[in-house]
Design goal:
- The protein contains 13 helices and 8 strands.
- The chain has 308 residues and is an alpha/beta fold.
- An 8-stranded parallel β-sheet has the order 1-8-7-6-5-4-3-2.
- α9 links the parallel β7 and β8.
- α4 packs parallel to α5.
- The longest helix has 20 residues.
- The chain is globular.
- It starts with a helix and ends with a helix.
Length: 308
């Protein structure tokens, strides 16, 4: 069960960190990394959707990962998302990640063109071949990628011994059960949709990777704590509060990650910039709603975690 021990738990998706001019800031990346270490999470998932990877170039993603690893190595489990929309760039990022010593690399399937399954499998295997000593996580997010991880494709990928996990962000929670059953005892499945974290854990997920974990890590850690102890009703109550917070965050004009970054600035005095266009930034009318989000998080933290 070494994979479960290594990867099971709460793994926040790492946010893109920019300076005042919109450039990737290594210093702010390091600050966010130290924040996660202090909060006691299992690890971080770097340069994924929450990291605005599709709006960054290779060098920016390398800079981000280098800054994360300078703080996180031997302190956090680090999963580096390396997928680009072409194989060559993805392999370059995979090799770079392995050189830095990450625990695992991850990749969504290629987007835009609808490729046959054998081409998707070749894409993932090519990326994996560029990091031959590193674990590989398949990122299944069909609602955004436009490609679903079918059972036939999953079975094909399982022939690659480096494939040790699926980050499952598909909305049917039963997909977690299917991947867990087919993957085997030590195969890791991460719950993706934050709103169904406890449901995902109940049906077989070993932990979660999520885009809102960063603004309320205490709540996800406590929910996971009660779930592990079999206190399902207590975990369920925290999930309800988490969902109320997420719905409030999504009520803003600005992008969800712009909201999250403003919450971190207000609650943690952690300034990591805003989001990169074309993602919409916050507008003045959002600020009242952001205040409400902060109040909801602090109320839940007091109620469930004893944090004042």
């Amino acid at each position: 069960m070494k994979n479960i021990e290594k990867y099971g738990g709460i793994i926040p998706a790492f946010y893109a960190c920019y300076d005042r001019n919109g450039r990737v800031s290594g210093d702010r990346v390091k600050q966010l990394t130290r924040y996660f270490i202090q909060k006691g999470v299992k690890g971080v998932y770097v340069c994924g959707s929450s990291g605005e990877c599709i709006y960054q170039n290779k060098e920016e993603r390398k800079e981000t990962l280098e800054a994360v690893m300078s703080e996180a190595k031997d302190k956090l489990t680090v999963i580096a998302h390396v997928a680009c929309n072409n194989t060559q760039d993805s392999m370059e990022l995979a090799a770079h990640a392995e050189k830095l010593g990450v625990d695992a690399i991850a990749a969504i399937p290629p987007i835009y063109f609808h490729l046959p399954e054998y081409a998707i499998a070749q894409y993932w295997n090519d990326i994996s071949s560029a990091a031959p000593n590193t674990d590989f996580v398949i990122y299944n997010i069909p609602q955004l990628a436009g490609v679903n991880l079918t059972m036939s494709l999953f079975q094909q990928m399982k022939k690659n011994s480096r494939i040790i996990a699926v980050k499952n962000s598909s909305l049917p929670v039963q997909d977690i059960q299917m991947f867990k059953k087919e993957g085997g005892r030590d195969f890791v499945v991460f719950n993706g949709p934050d709103e169904q974290f406890i449901a995902g854990r109940a049906i077989g997920a070993d932990g979660g990777i999520g885009g809102t974990y960063a603004v309320m890590p205490e709540l996800f850690l406590k929910a996971d704590h009660w779930f592990r102890l079999g206190e399902i009703e207590k975990a369920q109550k925290i999930q309800y509060s988490i969902n109320e917070i997420i719905y409030a965050m999504c009520a803003c004009h600005g992008n969800l990650y712009a909201v999250a970054k403003e919450i971190l600035r207000r609650r943690e005095n952690l300034d990591i910039g805003t989001v990169r266009k074309p993602l919409p930034d916050l507008i003045s009318e959002d600020m009242v709603q952001v205040d409400q989000c902060v109040k909801l998080i602090e109320k839940a933290a007091r109620e469930f975690c004893g944090i004042f």
